[in-house]
Amino acid sequence: MPYTPVWYMRQAGRSLPEYRALRTDRKMLDACSNADLITEITLQPVRRYDVDAAIFFSDIVVPLRAIGIGVDIKPGVGPVVDHPIRSAADVAKLRPLEPDDVPFVSAAVTSLVGELNGKPLIGFAGGPFTLASYLVEGGSSKNFELTKTLMYGDPALWADLMSRLAEITIGFLQLQVAAGASAIQLFDSWIGSLSLDDYRASVLPYSRRIFAALADTGVPRLHFGVNTGELLGAMGEAGADVVGVDWRVPLDEAVSRVEPGKALQGNLDPVILMAPWEVVRPRALQVLDRGRTAEGHIFNLGHGVLPETDPDVLARLTDLVHTESVRSA
Ligand code: CP3
Q1: Confidence at residue 329, expressed as pLDDT on a 0 to 100 scale
Q2: Which of 85, 95, 244, 326 is the right S-S partner for 265, CB 3.0 to 4.6 Å?
Q3: How far are the Cα atoms of 62, 81, 94, 106, 160 from residue 101, in angstroms, in the given order?
Q4: What pTM did the predictor assign?
Q5: What is the span of the domain harbouring residue 237?
């Protein structure tokens, strides 16, 4: 590839009118259970933006629902869990995921690989801390009080919970790769709420287990979280090939926090895209410039595309990354 590759976290979804049209009469998790819809929604941003990778349209709670956890995604709210985890008996309900639990995922990956003409398809899963946070809090949270209380107060139950979530995640990622996904990203979005010591002690061993289980597939493994300035080195140690960086840490600074041999992904502030193009352009070029100090760089936003984003700005940004990363290489 002659230019810096670019795709956007949450590139499929609410910022696209064609996505909203498909979703008017369907619930989010119903859309995520239909191979034809998954395929179409995954392809929509690839057509619009000419990005260099597709990200599989799904959600981090899909494998949880598939093993029988009562969870829904409420519009404008996010995941809501019927019976949040409160006891060892609740944790014991988390059984491993089998490919037969999510036949629509394998089917959609297979059809996408056929449609993408060699363009990579990124499979993904939620990381163990982020999944645990939804299961224990029952939904989104600001301070993760219940999750961290369990982590600090009952380390044995926490270990059981994290082990089970790691197994589910491994199963979900492995079946996507088996069906043809060419890279995987582990979204442990909320780990930035932890100190480095707590992350190392209570989360990293499980992320490491996940990346190790994917090692022999040979596909590139990406790892992302928000507010992870203090954790970037440890996230690399967990075994990812590419460490995603949010917009708070400049990429040339992130280089010094991550061990050598890793590529970086990121990290334009998604809110910048609401500003006039004269503001967006130099900021994007600065990200490209700083990305050149890394051993490899995948251009992305520092977190997901926001619903208010004008799709034309993302198309223009993709074009800018492609043309300018060649010109100044
Ligand atoms: O990146 C992509 O385009 C692929 C699709 C994708 C979705 N969710 C679809 C989705 C991905 C990669 C995710 C991951 C995900 N889901 C994460 C990790 C990534 C991140 O943003 O940090 C998390 C934390 C979730 C849980 C979740 N699901 C949240 C917080 C929300 C948003 C709630 C809201 O409406 O503000 C969802 C819903 C969701 N997942 C939507 C989409 C397109 C919106 C559903 C809709 O159309 O209403």
Answers
A1: 58
A2: 244
A3: 10, 19, 13, 10, 22
A4: 0.97
A5: 17-327
